[in-house]
Amino acid sequence: MWYAEADILAAEDRIAEALAALDTYDLHAVDEERAPAEALRNQLLFNLNASLKNLKTKLQAAWSEGNFGLAINCPPKV
């Protein structure tokens, strides 16, 4: 149940909630059941890392151009 919830949350790009659901799933799953959850977690963490790198690049560009309003208006999507 928690894996399905995590999968749906991931599809909705609700990464933090999906990771929390996967943590709950891991507490109740046996070893064989954890492989798909681990793959989903790895994909979510990869996507999160890519999003944060993209945000960092945008913030650095806005800061160097003196466009502080743009820096305030681009919060991370987590």
Record the SSE blueprint.
Elements: H1 2-11, H2 15-28, H3 34-64, H4 68-72
By secondary-structure content and strand pairing, the structural class works out as mainly alpha
Number of domains: 1
The SSE order reads HHHH
Helix content: over 70%
- Poorly predicted sequence stretches spanning 5 or more consecutive residues: none
Taking all Cα atoms into account, the compactness measure Rg is 16 Å
Question: Could you tell me the mean pLDDT?
Answer: 87
Instruction: Please give the largest β-sheet.
Output: none
The multimeric state of the shown protein is: single chain
N-to-C CA distance = 22 Å
What's the tally of helices?
4
Secondary structure: number of strands: 0
Provide the β-strand percentage band. Answer: under 5%
Structure, briefly:
Helix content is 77%, strand content 0%. The chain has helices spanning 2-11, 15-28, 34-64, 68-72. The mean pLDDT is 87.
